[in-house]
Design a protein that fits this description.
Elements lengths: L4 H14 L23 H4 L3 H4 L9 H14 L1 H4 L15 H4 L3 H10 L14 H13 L9
Helix pairs in contact: 4-8, 7-8
Length: 148
Amino acid sequence: MTLTRSAVIVSVVSSALVFGYLITPLVAQPADADKKEGSVYAPLAKAPKKAVTRRNPLEDDPRAVAAGEKLFGLHCAECHGEMAQGGRKAPSLLADPVQQATPGALFWILTNGVVRRGMPVWSKLPEPQRWQLVSYIKSLVPAPKPPL
């Protein structure tokens, strides 16, 4: 039986909750982190309005998520982690600023990168593959928030 990364994330989160542990992203950020200039998520807020309003042409294609998962493993997991949890090289993609970003904003980041923070430019990756990555990222289940 082969589990997808999404299924593994759900399984890990569920198991952690059963045993009373809370899972948080490795790169914890406050709720308004995307608005702070120094935040690793600040570049999402810099996407132009035209980019932000773009819709994912593959959003209704279930095959896009699976294809995006494969692409993620090839191109993104090394920095963002196998489960997109983030790490020393790149932030969590499970965090609210990423999950609440529009597909167009994510596509813009993939296309233009954030070179000064180490995020490569993926404009040479064909556009349909970049949309598949967006589909996969948007399909990820964020870690539960700790109780206040």
